[in-house]
């Protein structure tokens, strides 16, 4: 039986794209409390099926697929630029494929404006009309208003006219930043990308017995299975070790391991890998937002995905990328040594090297030196920062990692940071080593 939360989500998905949604309306039509309606609408917003816009309300939008994540809807643009919708509200759900800055003559500008684009322009009323006629939405910068006939035209064409107090350059930068952030997120592999769905895997139900485990083992050649109740909620895990010496008639709940570790579909692959390596787990059940089993991931799947990610070019740079790109190998003989210039982006409000940057430098230097001892991948378990002294902008520091201990599955590295011959930072890094 579906819950009220699920019923609301299903109802929202039946609404036409562009429909307005309110907590009170949902509560009244589905006879639920306003609290339940609010939580469901927020969940739908997280799923990307609705969008909430200040001074406009919540509207149903087309859910963007993962491959389309770098595109924005006009509704999202309103939120990004803190804008006000002057007209064409019914078109806020539409997706724009590009934006054009109208800082040129009209004839030249219109060569770049086509249906589905967004024209960023100032107080040029004639341009607003021509852009709408060409099928483009308009973002008016400088806080200017639009003429009444332009607003009416926007309503007729279902193309938003948006006003923002920011200038054109700032608006373009803000929209670019939003797209750029999404491109970085797009490259983060999630459990949902690699899981084996229920249609291709096997599981046991709490009412079944050990004999059923043997049947699955014979047909699939696997030895680990999640155990679920009739509502598909995971109750345990059963492995070959659990059923040793047990009779076929023994109920599976008597031999399974209860309260197993699980992940959800939005967990990153890197986080799942850390959990599996740290806990020594070979398989993890994957749950949906309602805590129901939707598939599994194996240790082999996770490690293979991590290796593929490392081999692929990344779109967009994270802050860690910007820091590690500054590191130069200045090793002398058998001593590993790295230098790095302290840029303004690497400093705190006081102008000294920030703790987050130090952590990144320690991780990178420690990882590099461990890979000289042992080929493969590693997962950093713990970094202990003993102390750090102020280092000013534009000064060069040297990072010296020394391996204290390394085994088949474990590594420990002491890392010292020097500036002009003096130690200005010291840390200890411990990592799990993974064979490829």
From TrEMBL:
Q: Which CDD domains match?
A: CBS_pair_DRTGG_assoc, hot_dog
CBS domain location is 256-314
Q: Key word Transmembrane present in the record?
A: no
Do you know which InterPro entries this protein is assigned to? CBS_dom (IPR000644), CBS_dom_sf (IPR046342), Diverse_CBS-Domain (IPR051257), DRTGG (IPR010766), HotDog_dom_sf (IPR029069), Ser_kin/Pase_Hpr-like_N_sf (IPR028979), Thioestr_dom (IPR006683), WH-like_DNA-bd_sf (IPR036388)
Give the keywords, sorted: CBS domain
UniProt KW Chloroplast keyword:
no
Xref: PANTHER family: CBS DOMAIN-CONTAINING PROTEIN (PTHR43080:SF2), CBS DOMAIN-CONTAINING PROTEIN CBSX3, MITOCHONDRIAL (PTHR43080)
UniProt name for this protein? CBS domain-containing protein
Read off the lineage from the record: Bacteria, Bacillati, Bacillota, Bacilli, Bacillales
């Amino acid at each position: 039986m579906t819950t009220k939360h699920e019923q609301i989500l299903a109802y929202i998905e039946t609404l036409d794209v562009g429909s307005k949604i309110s907590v009170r309306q949902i509560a009244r039509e589905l006879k639920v409390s306003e609290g339940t309606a609010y939580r469901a609408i927020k969940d739908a917003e997280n799923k990307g099926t609705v969008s909430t816009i200040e001074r406009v309300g919540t509207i149903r939008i087309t859910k963007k697929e993962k491959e389309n994540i770098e595109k924005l809807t006009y509704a999202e643009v309103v939120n990004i630029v803190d804008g006000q919708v002057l007209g064409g509200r019914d078109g806020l759900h539409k997706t724009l494929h590009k934006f054009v800055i109208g800082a040129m003559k009209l004839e030249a500008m219109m060569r770049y404006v086509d249906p589905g684009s967004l024209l960023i322009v100032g107080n040029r009323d004639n341009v607003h009309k021509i852009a709408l006629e060409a099928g483009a939405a308009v973002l008016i910068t400088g806080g200017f208003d639009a003429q009444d006939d332009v607003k009416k035209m926007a309503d007729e064409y279902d193309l938003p006219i948006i006003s923002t107090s920011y200038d054109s350059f700032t608006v373009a930068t803000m929209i670019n930043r939003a797209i750029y952030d999404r491109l970085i997120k797009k490259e983060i592999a999630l459990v949902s990308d690699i899981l084996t769905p229920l249609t291709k895997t096997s599981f046991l139900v709490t009412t079944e017995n050990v004999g059923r485990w043997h049947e699955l083992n014979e047909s699939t050649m696997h030895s680990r299975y999640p155990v679920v109740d009739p509502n598909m909620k995971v109750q345990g895990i059963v492995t070959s070790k659990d059923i040793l010496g047990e009779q076929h008639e023994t109920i599976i709940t008597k031999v399974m391991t209860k309260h197993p570790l699980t992940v959800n579909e939005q967990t990153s692959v890197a986080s799942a890998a850390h959990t599996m390596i740290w806990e020594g787990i070979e398989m993890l059940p994957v749950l949906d937002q309602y805590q129901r089993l939707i598939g599994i991931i194996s240790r082999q799947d996770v490690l293979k995905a991590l290796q593929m990610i490392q081999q692929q070019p990344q779109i967009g740079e994270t802050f860690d990328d910007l820091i590690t790109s500054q590191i130069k190998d200045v090793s002398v003989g058998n001593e590993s040594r790295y230098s790095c210039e302290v840029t303004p982006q690497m400093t705190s409000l006081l102008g000294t090297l920030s703790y987050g940057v130090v952590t990144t430098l320690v991780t990178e230097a420690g990882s590099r030196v461990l890979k000289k001892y042992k080929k493969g991948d590693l997962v950093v378990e713990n970094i202990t920062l003993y102390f750090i002294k102020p280092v000013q902008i534009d000064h060069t520091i040297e990072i010296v990692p020394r391996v204290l201990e390394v085994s088949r599955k474990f590594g420990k590295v002491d890392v010292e940071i020097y500036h002009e011959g003096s130690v200005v930072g010291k840390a200890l890094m411990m990592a799990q080593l993974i064979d490829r």
